[in-house]
TrEMBL record:
Family membership noted in the UniProt record: Belongs to the eIF2D family.
Protein name as annotated: SUI1 domain-containing protein
GO molecular function: RNA binding; translation initiation factor activity
Entry-linked SUPFAM superfamilies: eIF1-like, PUA domain-like, SWIB/MDM2 domain
Pfam family name, one: WHD_eIF2D
PANTHER family: EUKARYOTIC TRANSLATION INITIATION FACTOR 2D (PTHR12217:SF4)
Highest taxon listed in the record's lineage: Eukaryota
Organism expressing this protein natively: Naumovozyma castellii (Yeast)
Domain spans labelled SUI1: 473-546
DM2 domain sequence ranges: 360-445
Protein's gene: NCAS0B03800
Length: 565
């Protein structure tokens, strides 16, 4: 419904009587009495290219419900579902399906769902869609059930729309209200564990419960002065999460890993060095639920990630499975500052400490998919340039394409020739080419570029990498009619900069009035205008916010004054 940004009118407070009627309607439609309306509810009318209706928000102007004009049904937003977990029945799907399909405007097909289904998921029911990989079952999309899902015990081979998506986390609803929301991090310790997991991991749960009880006793005895110190400690689940991420990083990205390798070296030289920027005294194998290296490695061998040899604690890692589903959508992160492996890695924008930086990824299309299969690379959505380079080199070695007369030259076979010379029609083009000249045209002709921007702490600004190259902030100083000098800055929102906050900062620093508007060019973005020639002041301020100068374009249209003779 909100595939394009809706046109909204000014908000107005809902009368108390109307707020009570709204609450009654919500309870009647959802059958859930646990939900309570905020004490202050605002409403506004909206219009999109396909429909018109009403949006209800809380006192912070965050949309909580919406409806179409001629339809009495109320639709909850994902934000409302985050605050009331049992509001709607949940339909589970894969993380890849949610991010790559639903967030791009598709409906949820039956083949993309995961049984068993909630008995409430009948035709016409409003439901939430969550990822099976998310233990907190955070809702990322809202839709209407189109099939009688409980009757399906398996979905392989089935076809049809299971859930018609009405609203999702990445659509234009929240953006139209200038709201920057982040999904909540649910504490899985509070959640329940299903019966199968209890049977398989009964001993593990008993130990975890004992640890939890000990922690509770300690926290009860702790006085107020020590409370902050207690809160700084990570939970066992947090430690497990960081170590698991380090394993994923090691399997997919660590080019210095060579097999076979002993268990101790695997942990000390790779897992520990590939941790995010966390305190290693808090995040290590001993603080995890596995406690011992052997137990950790055997767990992931059972999950299909590793192949081990040896008995007891004397283990050797002899193989890794890079084709696991969990690794296909894994996005590498910035390693901790204490990890020397990352110091030599050059990232765009990372020339100064405290600055944002970006990492470039490539998505294979057409012939690139054939190259990936032939070279033995793991199939996934996005690849680093170094991974593609290694894949090309492996392919050249496997196909024995190195020129025996000149080792620096490669004899292109049909696949590589088509990838390198995709846009050339001349059949007389030589098939002998320098190895150094292969990668650039291969990336340009057979992959689409994506990027992810990270803040100075290594936190990604986007949920998933975006197509294209990193955006550039535009600053323009010009003279308006009436010889009025102004400076405009635009295209800054993708860097997490709020227009209202930027306008307030510039108003103070430049001692001039500011206005917030939109650019005249397409696509339209927010634009802040300040009186006076303040280009350098704005650049310095953006640098303090973490935006490197190389991502800023400054144009001064003021004509230089002519000197009097």
């Amino acid at each position: 419904m909100f595939r394009k940004e809706p046109h909204i009118k000014a908000l107005s407070n809902l009368k108390n009587s109307d707020r009570k009627k709204l609450a009654q309607t919500i309870h009647a439609q959802t059958g859930n009495d646990k939900y309570t309306c905020p004490s202050i509810v605002k409403q506004t009318n909206f219009q999109t290219p396909t429909t018109i209706g009403t949006i209800y928000t809380d006192e912070k102007n965050i949309p909580i419900w919406f409806k179409e004009k001629h339809d009495p049904r109320l639709y909850a937003t994902v934000y409302t579902c985050w605050n009331c977990e049992d509001l709607l029945p949940i339909c589970l799907s894969h993380d890849f399906v949610i991010q790559e399909k639903l967030f791009n405007g598709a409906n949820l097909m039956i083949s993309g769902t995961i049984p068993p289904f909630d008995e409430k998921l009948k035709v016409g029911t409003l439901c939430g869609v969550a990822s099976c990989q998310d233990p907190g079952r955070v809702v990322y999309a809202i839709g209407i059930v189109m099939m009688d899902l409980p009757k399906f015990e398996k979905v392989v081979g089935e076809s049809g729309v299971a859930v018609q998506i009405i609203h999702h986390f990445e659509d234009e609803l929240f953006k139209s209200f200038k709201i920057d929301l982040k999904p909540p991090v649910v504490d899985v310790q509070k959640g329940s564990v299903n019966d199968e997991e209890e049977e398989e991991e009964e001993k593990e749960q008993e130990k975890a419960n004992e640890e939890d009880e000990t922690t509770k006793e300690m926290s009860t005895a702790t006085n107020v002065e020590d409370l902050a110190e207690v809160l700084d400690h990570l939970s066992v689940q947090d430690v497990d999460y960081f170590i698991t991420r380090a394993l994923y990083y090691t399997i997919t990205t660590d080019t210095k890993l060579s097999l076979p390798i002993s268990a101790s070296n695997f942990i000390s030289q790779h897992i520990n060095k590939n941790l995010p920027d966390v305190d290693h005294n808090e995040v290590n194998i001993k603080k995890s639920s596995w406690k011992k290296t052997a137990k950790f490695l055997k767990h992931f061998e059972k999950e299909g990630f590793l192949k081990l040899k040896g008995k007891g604690d004397d283990l050797t890692v002899v193989g890794m499975n890079k084709t696991k589903d969990e690794l296909k959508n894994f996005v590498p992160y910035k390693l901790g500052s204490s990890n020397g492996e990352n110091k030599g890695a050059k990232k765009e924008g990372d020339s100064q400490s405290g600055m944002m930086y970006s990492i470039t990824f490539y998505k294979p299309i057409n012939l690139a998919k054939d190259l990936i299969k032939e070279s033995g690379m793991p199939m996934k959505n996005l690849y680093l340039p170094t991974e593609i380079r290694d894949g090309v080199n492996n392919y050249i070695t496997l196909k024995n394409l190195v020129d025996n007369k000149n080792k620096k030259m490669v004899l292109l076979d049909d696949l590589l020739f088509g990838m390198v010379n995709k846009k050339r029609t001349d059949p007389t083009v030589s098939r002998s080419i320098s190895r150094a000249q292969i990668l650039e045209p291969t990336l340009k002709n057979n992959f689409t570029e994506h990027f992810q921007i990270y803040d100075s702490q290594g936190t990604p600004l986007f949920k998933s990498p975006m197509r294209g190259s990193p955006p550039r902030i535009k600053i323009l100083t010009e003279m308006k009619i009436g010889r009025k000098v102004i400076t405009k800055v635009s295209n800054f929102e993708q860097f997490g900069i709020n227009p209202e906050t930027l306008a307030a900062d510039l108003r103070k620093m430049c001692s001039g009035s500011t206005t917030i508007g939109e650019t005249m060019t397409s696509p339209k973005t927010a634009e802040v205008q300040v009186q006076g020639p303040h280009g350098q002041i704005i650049i310095d301020h953006l640098n303090k916010l973490g935006v490197p100068t190389k991502w800023i374009d400054y144009e001064n249209k003021l004509k230089a004054k002519k000197k009097r003779k």
